[in-house]
Amino acid sequence: MTFHVLITDPLSEEGIQPLREAKNIHVVVDTELTPEQLEEKIVGFDALLVRSQTQVTRSLISKAKNLKIIGRAGVGVDNIDLEAATEHGIIVVNAPNGNTNSAAEHTMAMIMALSRNIPQAYLALKNHEWNRKKYVGVELKDKTLGVIGLGRIGSEVAYRAKGQRMNVIAYDPFLTKEKAEKMGIGCGTFEEVIQQADFITVHTPLMKETRHLINADAFAKMKDGVYIVNCARGGIIDEDALYDAIVSGKVAGAALDVFEEEPFHEHRLLELPQVVATPHLGASTVEAQEIVAIDVSRDVIRYLNGEPVKNPVNLPSLPKDVLATIEPYFHLAEKLGAFLIDLVKEVAEEIHIYYSGELYDVEVSPLTRNTVKGILKRHLGSHVNDVNALYLAERRDITVRESKTSSNKGFTNLITVEIKTKSQTRRVSGTLLNGLGPRIVKVDDYSVDVTPKGHMVFIQHIDMPGVIGRMGSILAKHDINIATMQVDRSDVGGSAMMMLTIDRHLDDAALEELKKLQEINDVVAIDL
Ligand SMILES: NC(=O)c1ccc[n+]([C@@H]2O[C@H](COP(=O)([O-])OP(=O)(O)OC[C@H]3O[C@@H](n4cnc5c(N)ncnc54)[C@H](O)[C@@H]3O)[C@@H](O)[C@H]2O)c1
Ligand SMILES: O=C(O)[C@H](O)COP(=O)(O)O
């Protein structure tokens, strides 16, 4: 049988040699297709290989009747509708390691171009203007570089900046003091890093939690004359806020490789002389392009030949019998993980999942992966799935344990997730009620009965008259409607909890006001 592979973005010819040499694979390269033409053409293909330009939309995927695998020759998969691919049973693979060096080197090049006005001075020279006064720069030595997102690329940038004798300070939810010390850099909260840095560079994925992470509020907290660098993804920085911050003089300059909308021919940020920019060139080196194309080609060959892939991004298909038993619990497992990590508000060091009741006798590892996925997604974004969740946890030294227990506390099935962090151990239990779906039934030692869905608030308080009324008045003042409410307590006048579901997200203003109530010890907003 011959498999047909379509390549729609420019990939390294050397990199795709493994595909060209494979006996059962026929390769077509067409990088000029319009979205409409691609939708027509995709029908006959078993594999699609792209970079960041081809938009692999739900509509395209729905037309791709034979498509088995999508290969992304690079890291970011925000141009691929992962949910649609998964729904259609199409595996997505990427090449997460191949362009790390190139992206880090490009970031350093941008920082240096920015600090010494190199693009602006070059342009002036081309326009016959010899002006030494206008292009006085700043040294990097002894300046502080703030790195937001210390993953593969952020870490490489940190090492390189140290070579420039910069002080480096980083924020990443997974960064521990020990790891920072080992790297010879400082660490702090997001606020601390942006307040202390002379240069700020972002290296997170683009996802709900990081969209406009650098916004007007963040700019207001930065030093006057700060420099901003984005070689990660357009959208992490709010471009309108950046424009205003440059015009006001708050930001001295910005270096941008990526933009909220790409490609473009005109951009108002580029009208500002303080902005230096490249058209998404971070991974565009001969070396990186060859490696990412080889990595992704090899995974495509493996998959089409029925072998396990090295870099899966979305769900694989599970054996039918396992799927039938376990599938109804997938959602519950993920939501329990997401709920608990929101509750602890810290990075997990250990995750322990206990299964009981009818789950005692079945293969539960897919549920463990779903729980860990629910936890890690909060930090790493949508590329975490039950294929890579355990791998990502291991890479971050998070211990994941799974136990079967006969103590089912009266439920026909029960999943209890326990998270240990540096300072606390917390638990949540959930069950699948026949015909009624998933329920959270215990939080720590408190009993509840709530559907893990939508906007929730978990309040710990002292058991005394009036607390519920005062809490209700605050929510009413903020026009927040309570949909359901549960209360439980350890003993009369002791510690107690309220679990609310509300009709919209609990915003910071309401949250802060609730926290000010004397009887309330903690308030957490949870959105599932
Ligand atoms: N310009 C380019 O051509 C180019 C090339 C390669 C990669 N990239 C982009 O660079 C980014 C980083 O890639 P990577 O390979 O280092 O990914 P990575 O997964 O190794 O690292 C991302 C890090 O961000 C951290 N993070 C998540 N949310 C955060 C938050 N709210 N605040 C702080 N840190 C947070 C994660 O914990 C993780 O350590 C991605 O957006 C990728 O698409 C761009
Ligand atoms: O996420 C990535 O790997 C980079 O943004 C590179 O994208 P590109 O393959 O389009 O250069």
Report on this structure.
Keywords: Amino-acid biosynthesis, NAD, Oxidoreductase, Serine biosynthesis. It catalyses: (R)-2-hydroxyglutarate + NAD(+) = 2-oxoglutarate + NADH + H(+); (2R)-3-phosphoglycerate + NAD(+) = 3-phosphooxypyruvate + NADH + H(+). One of its GO terms (molecular function) is NAD binding. This is D-3-phosphoglycerate dehydrogenase. The chain is of the alpha/beta class and 528 residues long. Helix content is 34%, strand content 24%. It has helices spanning 17-21, 35-41, 58-63, 82-87, 100-115, 118-126, 152-163, 177-183, 190-196, 216-221, 239-248, 286-304, 320-344, 365-380, 389-395, 467-477, 508-516; strands at 3-7, 25-29, 47-50, 69-72, 91-94, 144-148, 167-171, 186-187, 199-202, 226-230, 251-256, 275-277, 350-357, 399-404, 413-420, 425-433, 437-443, 446-450, 455-462, 482-489, 495-502, 520-527. The strands form four sheets. Strands 8-7-6-9-10-11-12 form a seven-stranded parallel beta sheet, with helices on both faces. A six-stranded mixed beta sheet has the order 14-13-15-16-17-18, covered by helices on one side. The chain has a five-stranded parallel beta sheet with strand order 2-1-3-4-5. Helix 4 links the parallel strand 4 and strand 5 (91-94). The protein starts with a strand and ends with a strand. The mean pLDDT is 93. 3-phosphoglyceric acid (3PG) binds at residues 51-53, 73-76, 99, 280, 282-284.
